[in-house]
Amino acid sequence: MFTWLFHLLHRKSEPDQHQMASALFRTAGYLSLIILLHSAAMIQFEQLSLGDALWLSLTSITTVGYGDLYAQTFWGRSATALLIYLGGIFVLAKTAGDYFDYRAEKRRRQLRGEWIWNMHNHILIINTPAAHGAQYFKRLIEQFQSSVFARLPIQLLSREFGQGLPNSIKQIEQLTHYHGSATHPASLQAVNAQHAKLIVVLAKTENDSLSDSRTFDILHRLRETGTQANVLAECVDDQNRARLQKAGADIVIRPMRAYPGMIVRSFAAPGSEQIIENMFNSSSDQYHRFDIQLDHLSWSEIVCRLMQHDIGTAVAYVDINGTMHCNPSAHSPIECSALLLMMRENHSTDLTQLTHLLKVAP
């Protein structure tokens, strides 16, 4: 008994959290064993009931000692001295110490991003933008939490925040982080990438095409985990889009740090990211504003006339007070001072044609 007690008291703490938990449970197991052995001895030598034997064991090992029950026989007292006084009290103190050490170490590792969370069906965000990372994460997470993905926990995998998350995002509910690199399989395993529901691979630098090489490597690592998650990857150079898709990205978008909601919309409505990207692109579809006053047509009539004459798609209008209205009700009466149209590249019309089309009854 004294041999295992000596090793127990001199056991060095292990850095692995699973070994920490195992050591705590092992110590608690020894304590439970001592209590059970002493209770059995009290039943055998003192003729106590099971309830009284457990009560005597617990009050003795915690040094409370109410005095309502006590060992009277030689063998009962010997068992108490051996099991409780020479072993149990020390093991109880060790168990309490291990528990508080475990809690403190767990808190420290969680703060520094070293704790492995057992997460499933979560959102995994990989990498941190080079500039204003915490501010970007705050806005991106707010977008996720105000969408259909609001109930999904979020975990960050980044080589940043080794001393803890910044105050601006530290208090966000359901947010955890792990300090590591997605190019290392151990880090991907630690964040349970294989069990994630959504994975976002951010470009480290939004203007450096070399970021695509790292993204390509991360996508291969993710594929090796066997993840079934919906994976979105940011691509700096459009020439690398097909390459990233072949590597495992379900959605590929340009980095748009000013509009993190684009990532959320890409997951919620796949394909919408292409529409949004067109708005920021000088090629492909073009957006034009025409200053035209209308007060006799509904929105559905305007949209239908433009489409029937292959002019373009009406996306919004500006009312006479200067307020923009996007996607208004189909039968809303329109009093506008300007129309915004989406038109194909190299397809144009002038204000005169548009005025004639809309102001003259078909």
How is this structure best described in words?
This protein is of the alpha/beta class and 362 residues long. The protein has three domains: 2-111, Helix Hairpins, CATH 1.10.287; 123-279, 3-Layer(aba) Sandwich (Rossmann fold), CATH 3.40.50; 286-359, no CATH class. Helices cover 47% and strands 14% of the residues. The protein contains 13 helices and ten strands. Helix 9 (241-247) links the parallel strand 5 (230-234) and strand 6. Helix 2 (17-46) crosses helix 3 and helix 2 (17-46) packs antiparallel against helix 4. 30% of the residues are buried.
Largest beta-sheet characterization: 6 strands, parallel
Residue share in helices? 40-55%
Task: Predict the CATH topology of the largest domain.
Answer: Rossmann fold
Strand adjacency order, main sheet: 3-2-1-4-5-6
Distance, first to last CA: 100 Å
N-to-C SSE series?
Answer: HHHHEHEHEHEHEHEHHEHEEEH
Number of domains: 3
Spans of at least 5 consecutive residues whose pLDDT stays below 50 are: 1-14
Average residue pLDDT: 85
Total DSSP E strands: 10
- Mind telling me the C-alpha Rg? 34 Å
Question: How much beta, percentage-wise?
Answer: 5-15%
The named CATH superfamily of the largest domain: NAD(P)-binding Rossmann-like Domain
Structural class: alpha/beta
Return the CATH class of the largest domain.
Alpha Beta
Note the total helix count. Answer: 13
Could you state the oligomeric state of the chains shown?
A: single chain
CATH architecture of the largest domain: 3-Layer(aba) Sandwich
Tell the overall outline: elongated
